[in-house]
Design brief:
Elements: E1 9-17, H1 34-37, H2 41-56, H3 62-69, E2 80-85, H4 91-99, E3 109-111, E4 114-120
Antiparallel strand pairs: 1-2, 1-4, 3-4
GO molecular function, one term: peptidyl-prolyl cis-trans isomerase activity
Region (Disordered): 1-34
Organism: Populus deltoides (Eastern poplar)
Length: 122
């Protein structure tokens, strides 16, 4: 592991919504991928934009939404991915996380896994 003393690590939480174009079309809440296979990328983005607005406006808490909605197993931890360094996440995800300030929420980020919003926590 890279030492965090050199500032090479960040910590983030995310909310992932998978869709028909996702690399793995299954998740903890949709083990057979029935919903995921019928979700278009556009509808996943619309859903995530609405969720992001609720969080930013204070109507919803990031962790609560993540634990209910996120298609990532990190949902069980309120979306927390823990600390990570460069080269551990998909490029768009990594670049966005490193560009956020702590406490800031990203716009929609597109990866092979699906669409995400990322909250940098450290």
């Amino acid at each position: 592991m890279a030492s965090s003393a050199s500032g090479t690590q960040v910590r983030a939480s995310h909310i992932l919504i998978k869709h028909e174009g996702s690399r793995r079309k299954a998740s903890w809440k949709d083990p057979e991928g029935r919903v995921i296979k019928n979700t278009t990328r556009d509808s996943a983005i619309s859903e995530l934009k609405a969720i992001r607005e609720d969080i930013v406006s204070g109507k919803a808490k990031f962790e609560d939404v993540a634990s209910r909605i996120s298609d990532c197993s990190s949902a069980k931890r309120g979306g927390d991915l823990g600390p990570f360094g460069r080269g551990q996440m998909q490029k768009p995800f990594e670049e966005t996380t490193f560009s956020l300030k702590v406490g800031e929420i990203s716009d929609i980020v597109d990866t092979d896994s699906g669409v995400h919003i990322i909250l940098r926590t450290g």
